[in-house]
Amino acid sequence: MQIKNTEVLRTPNSPTPGRPVIFNQEKCTGCNICVHFCMEDIFVPAARKGELPIILYPEECWYCGNCVDDCPVPGAIALNHPLMQRVRWKRKATGEHFRVR
Amino acid sequence: MSETTETAVGAEVWPYPIRYGQVKRHESDVVVLGGGIAGVWAAIGAARQGAKVVLAEKTVTARSGAGGAGVDHWQWAADNPCSRVGPEELAQALIDNQGGYRNGISTYIQCASAYQALLEMEQMGGKVRDVDDEFKGAPFRDEASKLLFAYDYDARFVLRVWGSNYKLLLRKECRRLGVKIIDRISVTGLLTRDGRPGSQVIGATGVNTRTGEFNLFKARAVIMCMSRPQRNWTFSSELRGITTFRPPTNVGNGHAMAWRAGAEFTMMEKSMRSPFASPYSYPSYGVGNAINTWFACNIVDANGKEVPWVDCNGEVISNFDDRYRPAEGQKFFIMGGGSSSHPHPGLKEYAGPKLIPDLAERMQNGEFTPPFYADLTSMPDHERRVIWGLNVGEEGKTRVPVLQTYSQAGFDPEQDMLQTYDFLRGSGMREPVSPQERTFGEQGVCGGLVVDWDLMSTLPGLFGAGDLIYGSQDHSHAAATGRYVGRRAAIFADGQQDEHCDDGQIADEMTRVYAPLGNGEGNGGGMDWKELNAALCRVMQNYCAEPKNAELLDLAEMWLDDIAETEVPKLVADNPHKLMRALDVLDILTCDQMIVHACKARKASSTHLHFNRLDYPELDPPVWHKWITIRRDGDQVAVGEMPIAPWGDFESNYQSRL
């Protein structure tokens, strides 16, 4: 296995959960409406206009979903539940088990 | 599709202009502090009375508050034409069901005018009826009015509504009425006549959470709608947001600043065990269960065996429809659905149907096999669609995180059974296993501002509405009391003179508010707001949880004071957002101190206040059946009391203020 020898930075750990929402880069227009509607103010606008908002305080997310509900482009932003808290269910007829993805 | 999870890498320059120390002034007849459900209704109520209104909101008025994302149950609307129970009877039942420890004034206002508020919501464009005939013929629908009801289908005082866009409509109505809305202002303190605590409230101060700009609000009447304390026993610096019912922004800022201003509070000694407080819980309303939004869903075990339901007499309910009807000899019921370990010790005469109380034991004996599931597939079609659709689509904080997210992951209510986790946690439904899972304000009625029939506090000019006033809760309560207090505050403001804000008081508050900015590592600072919050919780867990005694409570006071003296001066913030969080934790500390003072003052154990004193073990002694009040008086705490029902006659008091 060849590991690319790139510059290694002295980075701190990420907060957990670190990814409360996921942007779809192809759909997000960088309009920052989610930044405006976020109650907890977890986002800040990107330095350059039109780029994806920055999730500056991911661990403060309340998971209310207002950023998704109020986004003008369907599918541009999705909630991403913490892995620990993804709820399970069972299909009655087959007994198969599923969970939030 | 390419996905990205853009997170901050490296330190970039703060994206908003910095305006520390700059002052912006606002003047109005009425200022509303907090733009959640109560706040916007209060602003609308005052503006309709002709007042010039300014509203200051910590986050974003379009969506803020515990009910900003939605509401599905419009509770206690006994003034609706289908209700078989009148406002007075329902208010009294709700009070009795809390052992007397519920605010009769605000509960009556709710029971007498929640439906009127809903009709106003309909005028604003909100959907309150089944106009699309989605539930035609369902037993919870009134065919003539197309109103939908919940819980007790005979009594009909709780409505099901489509509230996920109500907050947006309320903000629009505020704007139409000329209310000046200022978002992203964390209100920090109250201004009083001559700058003295205990005198008339004439304004407030706040700091912009993005720019750090100082804001001054001068008004003839001040309405506080700032919810209640949270994070007093439980705080996880991470892994928290998804489980909480009320937004993390609600920390009791209003309680803390009104305390500093000298207002009276009561019921501050009540706190209780709550799974809502746990960072290890699950999305609210997002697991299989049978209460509230999910009432009265079939619960089955791993083998598909159904868990029976019982009525208030303990009789097994064999006919499904009877889960929605009072038991034999019962006039009506209040909610229902929990099991015996539900933390509210309500009265039998108002108890709703619930799952068998001995499920935990019967699981132990092998009669039922975990895990358990909420089985919507076996529910009647209209009940399945109303739970997984209307209720889990319109309830605060369910539309996107539960309905949409689960559906996209393939959950199908016609085929799938959602797992319930409560029975795996060692005991009955909703009973938490950890003593750290304790809360003041996450659920139930709790302590708050003492108010009179004008919803005015003990300080002239300071009014309150919503969850902030003592012994109150709920979305329709916030709407009804907000609507009412806006009118009363506007009338009060009309008779007031122009007051001068005290420069010394403003300067002191600026010094207090900006202090964390000067506490960098080099200045002996460096205490992070999260670490401070967690440490305060530890003091409350160890010395002010269950059980209590004078020794423990003295230690709680001592260690809180010690932290205030030693670590608070080191509290650090390096941008306006973190400054807001730091100031929040200072208010949490103040609320903790209020709670400890109140706990020391009640020298008796109480069932309904979830209050267990080892040194006063007698439960509910009649002589202590009263409200204990506390207020700050200089450096001292003045303890007082109110009779258990200080509100007098409901209807005449209410009618004389319409």
Description:
The complex is a heterodimer of chains A (101) and B (658). Chain A is mainly beta. A two-stranded antiparallel sheet of chain A has the order 1-4. Chain A has a two-stranded antiparallel ribbon with strand order 2-3. The longest helix of chain A is centred in the middle third of the chain and has 5 residues, at 33-37. Chain A has a domain at 21-84: Alpha-Beta Plaits, CATH 3.30.70.20. Helices cover 9% and strands 18% of the residues of chain A. Chain A is built from 2 helices and 6 strands, in the order βαββαβββ. Chain B contains 14 helices and 22 strands. Chain B is of the alpha+beta class. In chain B, α11 (529-543) packs antiparallel against α12 (550-566). In chain B, strands 2, 3, 7, 8, 9, 10 and 20 form a 7-stranded mixed β-sheet that branches. A 4-stranded antiparallel β-sheet of chain B has the order 19-11-21-22. In chain B, strands 4-6-5 form a 3-stranded antiparallel β-sheet. At the A-B interface, β1, β3, α2 and β5 of A face β1, α8 and β17 of B. β5 (88-91) of chain A pairs antiparallel with β17 (416-420) of chain B, so a sheet runs across the interface.
**What would you give as the CATH superfamily of the domain at 503-643 in chain B?**
Fumarate reductase/succinate dehydrogenase flavoprotein-like, C-terminal domain
- The proportion of residues in beta strands of chain B is 5-15%
Helical segment count of chain A: 2
User: Judging from the principal axes of the Cα atoms, what is the shape of chain A?
Assistant: globular
How many beta strands in the DSSP annotation of chain A?
6
Mean pLDDT of chain A: 93
Low-confidence stretches of chain B: 1-9, 426-430
What value does the Rg of chain B take, in angstroms? 24 Å
Short description:
The complex is a heterodimer of chains A (101) and B (658). With 101 residues, chain A is mainly beta. Chain A has helices at residues 33-37, 66-69, and strands at 21-24, 43-44, 54-55, 77-79, 88-91, 97-99.
